[in-house]
Amino acid sequence: MIALDLPSKQHDESRQGEALILEKKSKKDGNERKLYIESYGCAMNFSDSEIVASILSEDGFSTTSEYEEADVIFINTCSIRENAETRVRNRLKQFKAIKRQNKDLVIGVLGCMAERLKSKFLEEEKLVDVVVGPDAYRDLPNLIAQVNSGQKAINVLLSREETYADVSPVRLNSNGISAFISIMRGCDNMCSFCVVPFTRGRERSRDAYSIVKEAEDLRDAGYKEITLLGQNVDSYNWSPENSSAKINFANLLEMVAHVSPDMRVRFSTSHPKDITDEVLETIAKHENICKHIHLPVQSGNSRVLDLMNRTYTREWYLNRIDAIRRIIPTCSISTDIISGFCSETEEDHQETLSMMDLVKYEFAYMYSYSERPGTPAAKKLDDDIPEEGKQRRLREIIALQQEHSFYRAQKRVGKTEKVLIESLSKKSKSDFCGRSDHNHMVIFPVLEGYKPGDYVNVLIERTTTATLIGYIVS
Ligand code: SAH
Ligand code: SF4
Ligand code: F3S
């Protein structure tokens, strides 16, 4: 998954549950209907909300950032951990009051929670009118019409083909500089802890030419950075119709890198079992493919990894790290870690810490295990680590990661980083912020003649735990 928040947020439960409220404002005029959509969870969900907005714009909807003026309120939901679902339920309660005032208001639940709970949502959450799974968004205009005629509506069919390849997203989450492009949907991996294969269905890759076209459109609109999204981008695999040619992720990366030397390419998420030397060589070869790989490890112990059904061992993972260091020596590496998975012993936990010591990740997203109903782990394994134990291990992981993030950040002091200016810093209007090639957040004083969307070279003077601070040298 892609990090939507700053990498400086080392323990970020919110990454998978942060609401993003639309920035696009629009005035209510005539009979135009208004859509308010709030997204939770991973970048995939945020990207899907842009597809939803596009499908509904064809049906006469424009988006609004004020839910009070909306005709339709959608929450695009996440099921990854229990607390992600709790947040959504709490948010729905807040919408109850508005629904009381406006009986015609349509409230819908989209995304992974809709897919997981299906019609249960209509039974449990009385104020919800429509429930739509991630592969059924083309049906939204019909479903809304059904609700307008007085019924409840639901479509949670998963598809083996749907990639929304022809839908041109309405860029809701964007600053006009960087954008997401979904390159595939679903996941076939069946990691035992994970709900995604159940909420997003089978893995399918999107037409490579439609991806390149979307990248070209973004280039022409002045965008400077694209992030290719998939649950496991390394298993991207697409063939043109009536052709035996196969386009793998390395080929796709290369095609997209050629769209413009001035447009950066990022991608997420890589899977240790599938990331090939060919992919690494492609990253090394192209200046505009960012030298950062998010490679979730989950655990440093081979027995736990086996129980998680990650299909790699500690040794295999370390071999992939060696390959990254050999082929892309400057590459930064980040990860995801789960503490307290079923049967994890104190020694197993120590192996996770020692894995962290060996790799010294630039940053990490760290979670305690949350059993998800219906997953293989929930069916077959005992969630036997007491909450207190999970949390203590998590605290140790977070503390160690903070040391490593600081260590990695310090290594950049005295170096010049190529930064894409994103905006003024939230803390000070006299500073810019942007990301380095290696995905560090960088803060530096505004300099006349430079603006968001420009690349600058920033000399790093000092750091916080994970943020680099410096000044523009050219
Ligand atoms: N497809 C990506 C990310 C999936 S979800 C991948 O394979 O890496 C993002 C992260 O959430 C996972 O990497 C994992 O660390 C965490 N996660 C998933 N299910 C979880 C669960 N049941 N409890 C705690 N963390 C979980
Ligand atoms: Fe979940 Fe594993 Fe698929 Fe990632 S690769 S989405 S963790 S099943
Ligand atoms: Fe959450 Fe679904 Fe993404 S469960 S993490 S929104 S794929």
TrEMBL record:
The keyword Lipoprotein does not apply. Residues 410-474 form the TRAM domain. It is an enzyme of class 2 (transferase). Its EC number is 2.8.4.3. Keywords: 4Fe-4S, Cytoplasm, Iron, Iron-sulfur, Metal-binding, S-adenosyl-L-methionine, Transferase, tRNA processing. It is found in: Cytoplasm. Monomer. NCBIfam families: miaB-methiolase, MiaB/RimO family radical SAM methylthiotransferase. This is tRNA-2-methylthio-N(6)-dimethylallyladenosine synthase. It comes from Pedobacter segetis.
